[in-house]
């Protein structure tokens, strides 16, 4: 994202840094479901605590067709792999592109009465960033407790005065894993470990997450659900997806925020009512997954399981698609067993390295029957998937090694056909604005493109 986005230049720095030590690797997730002991029914927590096995099974057995994921089995396998239970009683709202998402987030901030916790990769000093800063300062002055955790690399070009103004207003700000070694304490300099999460939690009752950073890049909408058809990319904004969650699952977001804050060896959060009594806000059953370097690969395992268990369809929208070999093989295996595998990827990108590195897998995927679409005009930044129409995920995680191995990320998994149908409609809309890539066309691409792909793939691990 502009010069600030780590993908525009940081991989070179990280590669040099990483060569000083051994490379970490992703776990073996081949046939992951066969390796797990589910131990019975999945755990489902509600507003008043853990639900009985009978009630949990009832929630997960509504109107699933036999030709799709067995949701009880899938939920139990996913819990065994991640250690994270499902949470019932939530309301979910899909948000598309910057203007809609920013409006909802600012509305929530302006209505805050107790606390605001904001965690973001990019927080630009531009028109939109200043609008958010002003709103946060106003709430702090009104007596609301405001805490901000921002990534050092994501904000590397932002003047220190921008954040100092918020500090002087009483807002607590923490810079995640500072690039400047002089600012580092505790476990030492961790340049390669970044906080890529985008989370806003208001009053412990409402949470937002997805792919959208706080930047004027999101001042415009993309072509998504637009009746107009601009012909110039300068006329459209980035295509992204966010989600708003209300209900008991917000507590899971709050815990992940506090845990990440604590890793920075800073003062404790100031007192506030971060965990108000949970109330039932809707009928959605969700799982909130947070992953971090050196962790248990929760999001990676959840993706692997869903792809491996898919019976009908795998529909993925991915901004930065540089999958590891296991993921490629799982997608190929799904297509060969008759699953409808479609992937919407960028046709234009803010990161040439990642754009060309992802192309290196096109031939294998297309040959196996995977359908690849490239979004036209708008820069694609969404990170979503819907599998068999009833397992959906929205979050900050790209399908690449960096996201799964080196970043702190967050994804929400939403169970059920109602939300899955919303996700399917959005996916179909993105396909409408995309170009289908055929195997013949791909194999006849220019030699110059092939050379760029070859060079970019040498850096796959660091992208």
Structural commentary:
With 463 residues, the chain is an alpha/beta fold. It folds into 2 domains: 6-89 and 283-462, Endonuclease Chain A (Endonuclease, Chain A), CATH 3.30.870.10; 92-262, Endonuclease Chain A (Endonuclease, Chain A), CATH 3.30.870. 33% of the residues lie in helices and 22% in strands. The protein has 15 helices and 18 strands. It has an 18-stranded mixed β-sheet that branches. The longest helix has 16 residues, at 417-432.
The CATH first-level class of the largest domain comes to Alpha Beta
Fraction of helical residues? 25-40%
- What is the overall shape? globular
CATH architecture of the largest domain: 2-Layer Sandwich
Determine the N-to-C terminus distance: 14 Å
Number of domains: 2
**Mind describing the biggest β-sheet?**
18 strands, mixed
The CATH topology label of the largest domain is Endonuclease, Chain A
In terms of DSSP E residues, the strand content is 15-25%
- Strand runs, count: 18
Low-confidence stretches: 1-7, 14-21
Q: Overall pLDDT, averaged? A: 88
* Radius of gyration from the alpha-carbon trace, in angstroms: 21 Å
* Name given to the CATH homologous superfamily of the largest domain: Endonuclease Chain A
* Helical run tally: 15
Structural class: alpha/beta
Secondary-structure blueprint of this entry?
Layout lengths: L9 H9 L25 E3 L2 E2 L2 H7 L11 H12 L3 E11 H14 L4 E6 L6 H15 L3 E7 L8 H9 L3 E5 L17 E2 L3 E4 L3 E5 L30 E6 L3 H13 L21 E8 L6 H12 L3 E6 L6 H12 L3 E7 L5 H8 L2 H6 L3 E5 L7 E5 L3 E5 L5 H6 E9 L1 H16 L1 E4 L1 H5 L3 H11 L6
Parallel strand pairs: 1-3, 4-5, 5-6, 7-17, 12-13, 13-14
Antiparallel strand pairs: 1-2, 3-10, 3-11, 4-8, 8-9, 9-10, 11-17, 12-15, 14-18, 15-16, 16-17
Helix pairs in contact: 3-8, 10-15
């Amino acid at each position: 994202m502009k010069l600030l986005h780590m993908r525009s230049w940081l991989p070179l720095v990280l590669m040099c840094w990483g060569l000083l030590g051994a490379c970490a690797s992703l776990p073996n997730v081949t046939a992951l479901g066969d390796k797990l002991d589910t131990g019975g029914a999945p755990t489902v927590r509600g507003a008043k605590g853990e639900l009985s096995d009978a009630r949990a099974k009832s929630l997960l057995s509504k109107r699933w067709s036999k030709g799709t994921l067995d949701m009880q089995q899938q939920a139990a396998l996913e819990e065994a792999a991640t250690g994270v239970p499902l949470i019932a009683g939530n309301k979910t709202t899909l948000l598309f592109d910057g203007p809609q998402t920013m409006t909802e987030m600012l509305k929530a901030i302006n209505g805050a009465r107790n606390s605001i916790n904001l965690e973001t990769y990019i927080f630009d000093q531009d028109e939109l960033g200043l609008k958010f800063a002003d709103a946060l300062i106003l709430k702090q002055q009104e007596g609301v407790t405001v805490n901000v955790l921002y990534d050092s690399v994501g904000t590397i070009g932002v003047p220190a005065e921008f954040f100092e103004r918020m500090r002087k207003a009483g807002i607590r700000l923490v810079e995640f894993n500072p690039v400047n070694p002089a600012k580092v304490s505790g476990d030492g300099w961790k340049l390669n470990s970044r906080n890529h999460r985008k989370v806003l939690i208001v009053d412990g009752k409402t949470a937002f997450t997805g792919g959208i950073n706080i930047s004027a890049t999101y001042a415009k909408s993309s072509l998504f659900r637009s009746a107009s058809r601009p012909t110039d990319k300068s006329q459209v904004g980035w295509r992204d997806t966010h989600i708003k969650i209300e209900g008991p699952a917000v507590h899971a977001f709050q815990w992940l925020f506090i845990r990440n804050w604590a890793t920075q060896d800073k003062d404790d959060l100031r007192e506030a009512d971060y965990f108000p009594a949970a109330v039932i806000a809707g009928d959605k059953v969700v799982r909130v997954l947070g992953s971090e370097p050196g962790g248990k690969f929760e999001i990676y395992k959840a993706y692997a399981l869903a792809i491996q268990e898919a019976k009908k369809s795998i529909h993925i929208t991915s901004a930065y698609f540089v999958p590891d070999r296991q993921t490629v093989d799982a997608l190929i295996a799904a297509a060969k067993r008759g699953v409808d595998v479609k992937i919407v990827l960028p046709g234009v990108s803010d990161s040439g390295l990642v754009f060309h590195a992802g192309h290196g897998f096109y031939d294998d995927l297309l040959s196996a029957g995977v359908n690849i679409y490239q979004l036209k005009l708008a820069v694609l930044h969404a990170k979503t998937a819907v599998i068999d129409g009833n397992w959906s995920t929205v979050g900050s995680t790209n399908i690449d090694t960096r996201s799964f191995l080196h970043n702190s990320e967050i994804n929400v998994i939403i169970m059920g056909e109602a939300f899955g149908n919303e996700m399917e409609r959005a996916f179909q809309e993105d396909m409408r604005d995309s170009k289908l890539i055929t195997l013949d066309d791909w194999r006849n691409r220019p030699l110059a493109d092939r050379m760029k792909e070859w060079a970019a793939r040498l850096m796959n691990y660091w992208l």
